[in-house]
């Protein structure tokens, strides 16, 4: 089992900021675990985040997590994809490297807020080749099937290049959207879910369960169970984080909480991780 996740509902209590992250490890779970344990500190300590630039703060946090992973001898052969979402007021910020995804339900329609970083993409291939690598069978150096990740030290050996110019880059795509009353929930998950279920099917599944007043934990568990069905299973780990927003999101009212006892609670989250029997 190489997945990890992080949920921090009080990242910044003064601004009501919450953080959600999914990390899909490869070559070992060390980098995924390191990211889950350090992402909150990396964001909070980012100079850009401290001056109020949330998007750039997320980007700086990814580089910091990558530096910490590269400095960890035990994680030398390991890496991880990362998808991290921050909610502040009516703004949703999403950053990602690799092929984990964040999907927002907007009026019942799935909106993918992340990009899959694959070696066959022309821009990614050009960077890989400029850094002395090659792409074959859709893999960097016939090995890694993603072109951006945290860790993966063996692909980041050219000391004449910046971190974002290496064969495998830790530089995330960052996106910001304004939440409205039509945005009811989001799902962060590793590729184990998305390889098994289309995004729109995931959104429809979650909405049906929420309409039946299932708990978020039960919804996340149900998604994992669906993905692990023998006819669907991608033979991969599956980690899912489900975050529900309130019906009318307003900048002055959005708050993050963990239960319904607080009438100001506007979002709730549940996370579930599972492995197929052979993993």
UniProtKB/TrEMBL annotation:
GO terms for molecular function: metal ion binding; protein serine/threonine phosphatase activity. Keywords: Hydrolase, Magnesium, Manganese, Metal-binding, Protein phosphatase. Its cofactor is Mn(2+); Mg(2+). It holds the Pfam family PP2C. Residues 1-245 form the PPM-type phosphatase domain. Its EC number is 3.1.3.16. Belongs to the PP2C family. This is protein-serine/threonine phosphatase.
């Amino acid at each position: 089992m190489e997945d990890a996740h992080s949920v921090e509902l009080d990242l910044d209590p003064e601004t009501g900021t919450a953080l959600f992250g999914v990390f899909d490890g490869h070559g070992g779970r060390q980098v995924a675990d390191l990211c889950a344990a350090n992402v909150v500190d990396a964001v909070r300590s980012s100079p850009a985040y401290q001056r109020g630039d949330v998007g750039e703060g997320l980007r700086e946090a990814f580089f910091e997590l990558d530096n910490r992973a590269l400095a960890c001898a035990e994680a030398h052969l390991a890496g991880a994809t990362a998808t991290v979402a921050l909610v502040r007021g009516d703004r949703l910020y999403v950053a990602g490297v690799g092929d984990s995804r964040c999907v927002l339900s907007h009026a019942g329609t799935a909106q993918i807020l992340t990009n899959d970083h694959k070696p066959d993409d022309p821009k990614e291939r050009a960077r890989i080749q400029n850094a002395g690598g090659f792409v074959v069978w859709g893999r960097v150096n016939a090995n890694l099937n993603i072109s951006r990740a945290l860790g993966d030290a063996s692909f980041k050996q050219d000391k004449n290049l910046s971190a974002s110019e290496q064969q495998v880059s830790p530089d995330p795509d960052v996106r910001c959207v304004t939440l409205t009353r039509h945005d009811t929930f989001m799902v962060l998950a590793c590729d184990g879910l998305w390889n098994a279920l289309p995004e729109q099917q995931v959104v429809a599944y979650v909405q049906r369960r929420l309409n039946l007043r299932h708990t978020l934990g039960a919804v996340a568990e149900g998604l994992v169970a669906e993905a692990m069905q023998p006819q669907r299973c991608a033979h991969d780990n599956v980690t899912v984080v489900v975050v529900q927003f309130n019906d009318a999101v307003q900048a002055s009212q959005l708050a993050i909480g963990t239960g319904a006892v607080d009438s100001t609670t506007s979002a709730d989250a549940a996370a579930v991780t599972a492995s197929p029997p052979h993993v």
